[in-house]
Amino acid sequence: MSSIGTIARAEFSWLARSRLAQISGWLFAALLALCVITSNTFLAQQTEHRQSHQDEASEIFANQPDRHPHRMVHYGQYVFRTPAPLASIDPGLDAYGGTSLFLEGHRKNAAMFAGAGEGAALVRLGSLTPAFCLQVLAPLLLILIGHGSITRERETGTLKALMAQGISLRDIAIGKLVVLFCVCTLCVAVLALAAISATNAVPNERSAALTLVAAYGTYLTLWALVVITVSCLCRQSSNAFLTLAAFWLLSTLVIPRFAADIAKTSAPLESAFARHMQVTAELRALGDSHNANDPNYQDFQTKVLAEYGVASPEELPINIRGLLAVEGERQGAQVLKRFSTEDQQARQAQQQIITSAGALSPMLVLQTASQAIAGTDLRAYHRFLDEAEAYRLQFVQTLNMLQATEVDYALDRIKSIDVQAEQSTRVSADAWRQLPAFSFAPAPAAVRIGGASSSLLLLLLWFGAGGCLFLWSTRWRPL
Amino acid sequence: MTTRTSTIGWLRELRFLLRDSTAVIALAVLLALCIIATAIGITTITAQQDDIARMIEADRADRETVQAPLGDFGDAAYYSFYVTYDAPSPLAFAAIGQRDTAPYLKRIRLLALEGQIYNGESPNPLLAQIGALDLSFIAAYVLPLILIVLLYDLKARERMAGRLTLLEGMPNARRRLWLPRIVLRASLAFAAIALPFIAGALVFSASATEISLALAGFAAITAFWALLASLLALLPWPAATIGATAVGVWLLVNVFVPASVQNLIIPTVDGPQGADIALVQREAVNDAWDLPKSATLDPFAKLFPEYTIEEALQPFDWRWYFAFQHMGDVAASELSAAYRDSIRQRDQVAARAAWVSPALAIQRHLQRLARTDVRAQLDYEASVRDYHRELQAFYLPLLFNKVPYDGARLADAPVFK
Predict the structure, then answer these.
(1) What gap in Å lies between CA A331 and CA A412, rounded to an integer?
(2) Which among A140, A268, A378 is the nearest to B251, CB-wise?
């Protein structure tokens, strides 16, 4: 045991003397600090912007004057996707999905204003966030300072001398590992601080923050194991460096992109344009529920008349145009639901392909887990779209029922050609104020952690494999 | 030195290279990645071209179906969507750029444009976030690392082999020994990226000028990193230290510099939020419903004196409807211009940052040639705005001059080009 400590101390003092280790260490520390601070500021700003826009939009809606309810259906509501608290650690898809959505009756609008389209995309390598720093750059730091830890001793002949004193290769390797582990711990400590400050105001997010920190700790320790293992297996520092740099290049930069391109070409998605055309065509086939004479709604009208036991819409105690709107919206929402389910499944199929490339790239495994836990992954984005759609249906149907119960049928029919009727079909503005406002929150932490369980398991498998490789490469063998 | 001896020198270097398994593997990896990237680029862009061609056709058929039962130009203007598209340039395969995140197809109609033009996002944000493996990515990030691998142990290797003192004793050692070695290795790396690129460019029949400008970019980035790696390699340091230092420089100029600019300077460029435009436009459009018609029609007639309405209108009239749609755009136009301005300014900042970051410089160079950069995205947006004006110029006379409805005239509507 004491020999491990001695080796570790010697390695620390070597690091303290190595200009390369110092420069790369400081460079990385500066980068990490920059990422943590700017990411935090940026997220706070984004949250404030989107929250205030949401408040403003809800307030404007509530303050609309007396109107015909169907006008309000098309006046519509703007909803905003407020970011998850842990998005300051890993913003994931935040900048790549639309941040706002305009909701109105019988229509599916695309989300607008994705952040990626607004700024100059300077860093196509990956946006500079704490997540990117630790997923991609921290392994490079470990390689830079650790690749020669065993080969250096071998090249200078000190390895033989140490082993001649009865210190096993494994003890030497563990001593070196301790040093890299300390570097990992420093990185993770910074992450932990950032995670704590990000979830300070939301105690429910604590478990997610902790899991996130643990996942990054596992990942970085895995890299430390790989670095020492390769250093053990190579004869020369330069070979160890090349091997590690190649593994780093492929696993963090090339394979994820390659996997994404494979997903794009082997499971292609239809363009938003094509989908829009298909949706509108299907909605059109349902008929026009604004038009009481539309043939597609004749059965429904007959049914309503029969239910009330009357012969004509004029005799109904209720405005059938409102009921038609409710029925039309119900059918339309089914079509929209079907399309959005298909779209989500198609995107998830692409994600499956990318995730399976995690067998070749531990970074991809951590990235998947990290985004899932932070609540910034594809699933979280879908959750926003689903909640927005549920909210849309709710407010539109409430307004349609208002048209059925509060607006007189005879006046409703002639409102576009009669000024008097147009005035009398308006409903009191109190109604808008009673509609609930939209607010978006990520899924509960436990659900997100559960969703990340398979990638966390795969990360542990990688870790186990790295550990076995380490033990194998440091087994006793004649020099 | 005669030509003959120099040819022998080159052949000797090539023989050495072939025996250096690390160099061979590095070059093979680079070539394989470039071929993969070119193949993916060609597939992606061909798919986009096909998609655009299919959608132009589908859009026409869809519009005809929609228009068939209509009996009013107002209905026609309201229900007819029109396709607009951003056709890929011949070099788009090499630098996918913004085509990854911004939609290259948009449908618009005669309603307020500010409510439509921002619609659309990448089909799968996950893919957009990961990014594409295109030649510009390889040239910016992978090629430099390969050059470092090829050159970092130039001198250290000879020292390890014990030949260094002997070799340096030769007359003109620098020129005869190191120069051919550096030039040969750098040229092969250049060829590994240039050849797949040329093949791809020929597939899309790019012009000779475009091809040579792109090749000049590849040559410049190769020369920069080859020079840097060789200068470091000639230092009397251990090979691993040289390699690690070179990677440190890579990290500094390719990651640290752009990151600092992105995170520190870009956020200081102020501009309106996109959401503000959407809200302002909607308020203007919706308020019009409750205002007296003259509140819309008077300012509208000032903008378009030819579209003046004399008679009293019913509660609903298509002319008034499209007039207030237009006034909604007018209300948001200042914000919208400022929004585009802020995007342009951020791009300017990036352009300046490219002076100190070769990775940024090569990507911007290729994206400009491929017309897949921020400017190209704004150009597409501008062409959609022009087209919307053309649609207005087509429909408004039909409505305001009360032309009797004739479905056949709808075929004369302008087509996006």
Answers:
(1) 22
(2) A140
